[in-house]
Amino acid sequence: RPELIESYVAPRTPVEETLAHLWSDVLGVTNVGVFDDFFALGGHSLLAARMMGRVRETFGVQVPLRNIFMKPTIAHLGQSVEEALQAGRTLTMPPAERSTRDASLDQPPKSSPTELH
User: Fold this and answer.
1) How many CB atoms lie within 10 A of CB 72?
2) 16 vs 21, 40, 96, 105, CA distance in Å?
3) Which of 31, 24, 29, 19 has its CA nearest to residue 68?
4) What residues have CB less than 8 Å from 91, skipping those under 6 apart?
5) How far apart are the first and last CA of the chain?
6) For the chain, what is the HEC assignment?
7) Exposure of 38 by Cβ count < 10 A (0-12 exposed, 13-18 middle, 19+ buried)?
8) What are the pLDDT digits (tens) for 28-63?
């Protein structure tokens, strides 16, 4: 963890704890505090997009990318995630269907899976 203006404040909720692990992984730093600035820790626009993708995968909610630019802390992002979860704004994806390697991309998949070669 590089020296930052803000002193370290540990995650206070399970959502903040998970976000701290995600930030640590994406940014390659340890001991990420809830008030640490994503960009002061080495983040940039591509890593911000990657981070928001990880948030979507982990929590199943869509949080606008602009949120990390406007308020780039775990505390604020955690609040956005918790609000989305409480409001029931979770993502739903249709189940994936198995396809063969020789299936045409122009044809809809068959209703029953076929054996892969």
Assistant:
1) 18
2) 9, 18, 30, 42
3) 19
4) 56, 60, 61, 62
5) 49
6) CCCCCCCCCCCCCHHHHHHHHHHHHHHCCCCCCCCCCCCCCCCCHHHHHHHHHHHHHHHCECCCCHHHHHCCCHHHHHHHHHHHHHCCCECCCCCCCCCCCCCCCCCCCCCCCCCCC
7) buried
8) 998 899 999 999 999 999 999 999 999 999 999 989
Instruction: Find tokens 């990318």 and name the residue.
Output: 65
On whether the CB atoms of residues 63 and 81 are closer than 8 A, the answer is: yes
Residue 24 predicted with pLDDT over 90: yes
Cα 45 from Cα 53, distance rounded (Å): 12
Which two structure tokens, joined as six digits, stand for 1?
Answer: 């963890």
